[in-house]
């Protein structure tokens, strides 16, 4: 079984990363408070003051780590996308019979697991990516995910260059990830749990596309 490292090295964070345990605990309190407020008030209702109050911290303490609410939202996405990467890697390593279909199904359903565990992240990421930093970070994350899943598929003997050169295969992998991401955005648009039928259709769509590539068509 090839190793599974998905989405790692998604680029440098724009926020201060605390070294001390007390500071890390404060940052986590801030992120959890913001996540709760997103679920109750929505992204647009979020302010740095409301986040600080919910975290039971002075606003000045929040500004030690984040410049504004957009930076807090970006940090939430960074944290939860890292959790998603870990979930995908762990689930892929547990697959007994690896095929294109099981690779796609496992990876995409791992995303769904994290959306269910992290509903605030799902709202931030899936329902309107108006924060440019979050949008850019997400696109970069999708590219890294595509690169790593492509390498995983090649190592497993599922995908070969065939009629495509390396650059074309990389483009194909990125397109597959972007299509799946967009399809999930539709699936979760009106349902925090995701529309099960649309989730299944998204997986079938990406699987069918990559099956054709694997078959050299």
TrEMBL record:
Classification via SUPFAM superfamilies: Homeodomain-like (SSF46689)
Biased composition (Polar residues): 1-12
Name of the protein this chain belongs to: AcrR family transcriptional regulator
GO molecular function: DNA-binding transcription factor activity; transcription cis-regulatory region binding
Region called Disordered, residue ranges: 1-22
Entry annotated with the keyword DNA-binding: yes
InterPro entries: Homeodomain-like_sf, HTH-type_TetR-like_transc_reg, HTH_TetR, TetR_C_15
Keywords of this entry: DNA-binding, Transcription, Transcription regulation
Domain HTH tetR-type: 24-84
DNA-binding region: 47-66
Record has DNA-binding as a keyword: yes
């Amino acid at each position: 079984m090839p190793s599974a490292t998905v989405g790692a090295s998604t680029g440098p964070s724009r926020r201060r990363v605390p070294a001390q345990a007390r500071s890390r605990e404060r940052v986590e309190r801030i992120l959890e408070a913001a996540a709760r407020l997103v679920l109750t008030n929505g992204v647009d209702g979020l302010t740095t003051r409301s986040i600080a109050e919910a975290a039971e911290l002075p606003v000045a303490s929040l500004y030690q780590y984040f410049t504004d609410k957009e930076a807090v939202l970006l940090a939430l996405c960074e944290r939860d996308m890292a959790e998603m990467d870990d979930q995908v890697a762990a689930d892929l390593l547990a697959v007994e019979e690896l095929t294109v279909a099981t690779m796609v199904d496992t990876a995409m359903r791992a995303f769904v697991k994290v959306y269910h565990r992290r509903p605030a992240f799902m709202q931030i990421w899936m329902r309107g990516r108006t924060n440019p930093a979050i949008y850019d970070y997400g696109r970069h994350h999708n590219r890294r995910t595509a690169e790593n899943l492509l390498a995983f598929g090649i190592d497993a003997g599922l995908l070969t260059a065939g009629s495509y050169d390396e650059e074309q295969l990389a483009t194909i992998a990125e397109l597959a990830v972007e299509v799946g991401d967009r399809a999930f955005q539709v699936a979760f648009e009106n349902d925090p749990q995701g529309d099960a039928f649309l989730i299944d259709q998204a997986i079938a769509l990406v699987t069918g596309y990559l099956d054709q590539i694997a078959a050299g068509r």
